[in-house]
Amino acid sequence: MAAPPPTPAIVLIGHGMVGQRYLEALAERGATATHRITVLCEEPRPAYDRVHLTSYFSGSSPEDLSLTPPGFMDQHGIDLRLGDAAESIDLKARTVTSRSGRVVPYDVLVLATGSYPFVPPVPGKDAPGCFVYRTIEDLLAIEEYARALPRTPSGAAPGGAVVGGGLLGLEAAGALQGLGLATRIVEFAPRLMPVQVDEGGGAALLRTIEGMGLTVHTGVGTQEVVTGEDGRVSGMRLSDGSTVPTGLVVFSAGVRPRDRLARDAGLAVGERGGIAVDARCRTSDPHVYAIGECALAADGRVYGLVAPGYEMAETAAEDLLGREKEFTGADLSTKLKLLGVDVASFGDAHGAAPDSLDVVYSDSRTGVYKKLVVSPDGVLLGGVLVGDADAYGLLRPLTGSVPPVSPDQLVLPAGLAPAAQLGPSALPDTAVICSCHNVTKKAITACATLAEVKQCTKAGTGCGGCTKVIEQLLPAPADKGLCGCFRFTRAELYEIVRTRRLTSYEQLLDGHGREEARGGDGCEVCKPAVGSIIASLAPTLGASGYVLDGEQAALQDTNDHFLANLQRNGSYSVVPRIPGGEITPDKLIVIGEVARDFGLYTKITGGQRIDLFGASVDQLPRIWARLVDAGFESGHAYGKALRTVKSCVGQTWCRYGVQDSVRMAIDLELRYRGLRAPHKLKSAVSGCTRECAEAQSKDFGVIATANGWNLYVGGNGGAAPRHADLLAQDLSDAELVRLIDRFLMFYIRTADRLERTSTWLDRLEGGLDHLRDVVVHDSLGLCAELEALMADHVAHYRDEWAETLQDPDRLRRFVSFVNAPGAPDPTVRFVPERDQVKPDLAVLTRQPLDAVGGNR
Predict the structure, then answer these.
(1) Can you tell me the distance from the alpha carbon of 161 to that of 250, in angstroms, rounded to the nearest whole number?
(2) 397 contacts 346 by C-beta, under 8 angstroms
(3) Contact (CB, 8 A) for 273 and 288
């Protein structure tokens, strides 16, 4: 009997995002069962998400970034060899020799070697303190070096510089700033992101980024990396003759295809690099494919985006199985959030087409810039969006057609444009909604839920820019799940966490998440919501109530990362709690001294507190050390928690007052301080019906009567004000507190994520009557449980800033030089106004060439 033919061998060199997509494409087509697959990976870890690499600095772990599902390699019999890079290829023998010396034969070889960072050949480029920004190992090295940098002699934060103002350069700059470095960006082109945005978009982007405290040099190059006596980086010499101080340099000046292996083996490469491939991604050797950033496509381009790489991976997998598919080019549209700024470009963004016309909306106050490029006959050719890219998901698929509404209606804000009925329904079935995975509207509308779309088409699993449009295309879901990770509502998740006594997001996701989401990273919708649930239940669960402990840190919203509110110029505000607005002269003096000593702007708020603006990250612990010593606590202005309980002076001073409103306000604020909720909470107590504290515009408000207190709930001010409803009247002190306990815990238990009490009450089936039945008449038998939950919160309350100051490990979050005296971060700039300071608006609105002394 003849022996069966040997199983054909596939060798994949490179295990990045495109390499992993190729393996998944093989698995989806059953090829992993008919082929023996070996992967040679240079890095010490499997494929991970480079698109969201910078999220490492905001709490994501390397494991969180992984793109390789647990058990994937074993399930499909794939031999993954980490840290064993390919060293040479023998095309004649069809073998690959790895770094370890192992010789691996192949029938089919796939090169997914990606690209390498380009480092300009300037003197000093290899000095200690010079880095590139490409891998997780690069990030770990940058983080370690940055934390060891000493402060300048004046005590200011050490400097960091990024060479390159493109996509990755801005990501790197955000990472350096997050590490506490006074960061500058040096870009040779006359504007930031020169490939993606035009001059107007670059100007809007520059204003916003400089408003965050970064220094930008455009139109200049790096001539030399200057080193000190110890040989380490100490500065940079620029092409305009200036020298800037810096202790760390990150080169992010573009990438080049990694084609050395192919070149050395004798495969055809392009004149400017890249492994030459045909429309089926085959190289000059019929047994070898090249995909992703290492490949020079048949149209003569090297594509540096992940979406074309994915399409190449699909093409190569199809061709391996003898199926017809060609890669003839790709959409270069991009939508990203860089340093918190939405930036998008699509189609002919620069108006290169003959006779093309521009339709532009620009608002330098808000940092919004929108430009559409149209042909004389109205065809949408492309566009640039900065600061507001919500329309990207609709505009990009319309490229190449005449939109159903005029271009001005597509760029003007909703309040300025005539009513325009333009939604995803206006798109043709052939419109590509997800460019990362080349998924059309027709394929998406064949699915019933977002989870099904992701599972069946992979749309929405790449950059995420298409998710909003996908949700609008789907039928109103019977599935009321919080997000694509959970089929449960927030209220249901609350019950699961409470009854199962879960203390981590990972436990909840793996045990109760949708099947396709288990073992994954979660999403930006559910992680903060679950973090809030765990924090509000922490005493009952026996968990740490400190929101930055362990896994909790990665779940928090932006402001919670530093227990302070980020302001427009990159500084932070400090808001101590002042219960009921009552404060002693001694405490007033301490606030004044702190504001004076740290040069902070002071403002009395509408909630009867004093806000201190303009602190840099490294100053926060020193400021709070003085405030805590004086008896102040965190005011939780940064958290989804109780903000203030405002009060009038009440019967103690006012001749109209009928109850002691100040005492009650203080008691309530101290009782509910730190209570984590679906949204912020505000309250007030008025000492009589004249309502000077404006209690009926609060989430819960109290008004004194001659017989006690009236309790109002579900009010709020803001853009959509709502008058509060009277829940109960003439309550004693004990009755009032008991009802508020029940009301707040019932709200926390049943509200949706980011839902104010006003919206929740309007949505609540049965409305105010049902709420009254539950919390006053105990119709559901829950009141004892709600009161117990609140009692747990009150008994276990701990001030977050006091706890932070007592723990050196927690203080490291605020960079390693917390206790060193010195000036504020020099990149956070202020100018005087009315005997105080304000953000330097000239910096916030500066034009691109001003930073290097140029003229416009």
Answers:
(1) 6
(2) no
(3) no
